[in-house]
Structures are given as structure tokens and as C-alpha cells.
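>> Question from a student workshop board

For tomorrow's exercise we were told to take the sequence and the ligand below, predict the bound structure, and bring the output to class. My setup keeps failing. Could a helper post the expected result so I can at least see what it should look like? The ligand is iron/sulfur cluster.
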Amino acid sequence: MANKWSATALFDRLSHVSLGGSTCLYSLETCEKMVPLINEILELKERQDAIILAHSYVSPEILVTVADAVGDSYELSLKAKQATEKTIVFAAVKFMGETAKLLNPEKQVLIPSQKNGCSLADSITQSQVKQLRSEYPDHTFVCYINTTAEVKAECDVCVTSSNVTQIVSQIDNDKIYFLPDRLMGQNLVNELAEKGVKKEVKYWDGTCYVHEDYDPELVAYIRQKHPKAAIVSHPECSESVVALSDYVGSTSQMMNYVKEHEADQYFLLTECGLTSRLQTEVPNKQFIGSCSMCKYMKSNTLDGILQTLKEPESAININIDQRIQKKARSCIDAMFDYNQPIKR
Ligand code: SF4
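>> Workshop helper replied:
Here is what the output should look like for this input. Compare the format with yours to find the bug.
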């Protein structure tokens, strides 16, 4: 029998969230409205043998109540791989559901949101990669995990924001084509140069519209207003923002940095869901910053998750063509071969 939430317990968890507009600020009254939905989801999830995975960027009320696991795209794919439930409800965007499906072809993977795109993953198509491969036949094609299954199927190895430099350094070819993130590509070039690794890196022109928006003037302003704050950015930010940051890392690396670092105050340059998550998990630390929401991630709602559990046919059911499945899986497996984080 699933544990039930009360409005006061929920308010107690969410009252620390202080970034953002009305969507991410909580009163006892808003918690009272959410609790019946939450408890119905918990009951249905158990009855239907489903697991709910949620990306750190989705709304805090999902992260702290109905999610069985919370993390970044890569962490959640590994969770999906270990799941014993027959259905995975993936509160995130479509390319993440596809990665979970590539690793778990036998499981049903459902995405509750209809608005499940991503400015980065949608910046390049399979036919554009094929065209690039014919233009650059001597290059090794490296794709960020934020790509569709079709795009992964045309690439040699997949990477995450936490292992990109390490994997590219190990590739036995000095000609690399990195896609789709131009800003991460520029950061990669700088990191390789810092490490003395000689590679010719070409990159595609995609961006994440949330991280692209941060500029060095904002970082300088925060530095001046809050000189004791540690400034932490994601490698999807521009190289000028990265250069001014105290720490740069993937969402999970940013989380660990905040939890382990001695500073009391932080400014995180990433989607504000991560800051909200940290406000609930590390309430003794202070977070400053702006509300930078990803409209795709935030389109996951409690209503949408409930609807998915009640009527699975109303949700996006991830299905991947067999040929694409095989090729895209080998692109992900190539990453595991470099990284060796799990046994297959
Ligand atoms: S935050 Fe950026 S990379 Fe992540 S889903 Fe939204 S648009 Fe895509």
C-alpha cells in the first residue's frame, strides 16, 4: 500500500523553494490542491507496476513526491536499465525516453508530456548527419546524449557532459566531429587545449535555448553583488560564461559540488529546476539567481502523469525502428566501452 502525502508534509518539503514565478512557489493552499493527485498517482503506479523517473529540471512537486528516481539524462537511463517494473513513465523530454528505450527495448516507456521537444536535440536530423559524414569521411562522429535515436544511429560514440572530454581524448583519431551543441563544442576545444590534447574538432551549430541565454555580464553582476557566492555553470553555457565560473559540470556534478563545497551561497547557471531541487535537499545553503525554465521539461505535470497511468494510450509511447535501435544502441555501447560504468 503506497504511503500517502498530507498537505502539511508536502508544504514542509516545498516551502524552501524560493526561485521562480508562481509555477515554482508553494503555499499550503497549493499543496492542498496537489495532494489528491499525488496520492492517486502513488496508488495507480503501484497497481500498474510502473516506475516514475524524473529529470532534475521538472517541477519540484513531481521530484519530491511521485518520482522513484531523479537525476540527469544519463543517470536516469541507468536507472531505467535496472528497473524491474514493466512500465517506465519518464517525466522528461522525448530524446531521454528514447535513450531509456534503447537500453530497455523490452519495456514500455511512456512520456507524459505532449510538448516534449528540446532545442538542442531538435537542431539536427538524421539526414543532416548523413550529409556531414559524406563531407567529413575521415572524422569520428561524437554525439551528445541530447540527440534523437535517429541521430545517434549515424554517430560513432555518444557522450555526456561529464565524460565528453575524457572520451574524446581517448579516441584514436585526431579528427572529431562533435554534435549538436556548438557551445559545448567550443568548451570541449578549450578543455582539450588545456589538457594538451591535440585534436581538430568541428562542431554543429545547435544550442540549448536555456543555457545559451546566460551571458558574462550577468555573471559579472552576480560576482559584484554577491562576492561570496560560488558560481557554478553547465558546459552547455557559452565559453565566456564558463571562463568566469568557479566550477563547470553536468547537473549531477553540479549537485555534488554544492553538497560537498564549503561555500554557503551559490548561483547555478542552469535550468532552475536543479536549484529548486537543491533547495529541498540542502536547505541549509543559500541559492541566488534567476528563474530560467525549460518550457519542455516544465510541461511535465502531475495531471499529465496521472493521465498517463490512467490511460497509457494517451501518452507518447516510445517505439524505435529495429534498424535504428541496433545502430543507436551500439553508439551508446561505445560510450560504455570507454567509460565502463555498468556491466552489460
Ligand atoms: S534544458 Fe535545454 S537541453 Fe535540456 S531539454 Fe530543455 S532545451 Fe533541451
